[in-house]
Amino acid sequence: xxxxxxxxxxxxxxxxxGGKGGVGKSVISTNLGVALAKRGYRCILVxxxxxxxxxxxxxxxxxxxxxxxxxxxxxxxNLSDVQVxxxxxxxxxxxxxxxxxxxxxxxxxxxxxxxxQLLTLDTDIVLLDLSAGSSFNVLDFFLAANEPIAVxxxxxxxxxxxxxxxxxxxxxxxxGAIAQEEIGHLVDQTKGQKGALGIRTPRELxxxxxxxxxxxxxxxxxxxxxxxxxxxxxQIRRKEDIALGxxxxxxxxxxxxxxxxxxxxxxxxxxxxxxxxxxxPAIEVYPHSSFAIAIESIIQSLLTNNKEGSRG
Length: 312
What we know:
The chain contains 14 helices and eight strands. By secondary structure, the chain is α/β, with parallel strands linked by helices.
């Protein structure tokens, strides 16, 4: 039964990324959005995969009347102008369909404009479906989220890509924090001396910065500790596949000093393929499937974290 949720001043931003294509980001994003809507949360799905937008197909919209293209070509003033209904109560879509080749990788100022406008949308949660890869644009959308979520499947290539993605996100955030605190010269001094200084990991680099510049180093450490990505293991076929999430979480903590929470695992489910063929979200047409149950569990974990974050 739908619950009416209290209105908040700014929407929370959730972003689903992960580096590699074909791991199920769009399917998960769509179904997370539907699950939120059914719980009474107003949600806007944003298809930020400008090179291969397909969220409109996932929710059964053949050709969106408006898309992000209008924003890039200045036919629309802001994001709310290109928001379209999905036919599902509480769920809207900002599509990336019809994207031109030159806007698949928007310029920095336009990207920052989009990120700022996400926080002005009249909704509870904005859910970004990011494109594959680790470009600066993808990373900046991921880092702008209150809930950055990485999706990985239990294959060596997907795991490798996920590590590369998380590493790139970490260094993107770290570089910005160092520049903001204006201690880039101290970091430059460590080049070529990391072994002698005992710096083998990014975690140890931050610890070193705290020692040589306590105030700036503490500020950087605080900014980096705020980076708390979440992890979903998708397309699981064996029980032991879920252990991958624990290993990745431990690796992120030990190497980066970043806490990465495992939201859960989603077992491979043929109902997902059937729902895609039907152009409908699996959670709607197969609400009792293992996939739908896993999505509901993930939503519960995220909403619990969302409430805790709102109080903090």
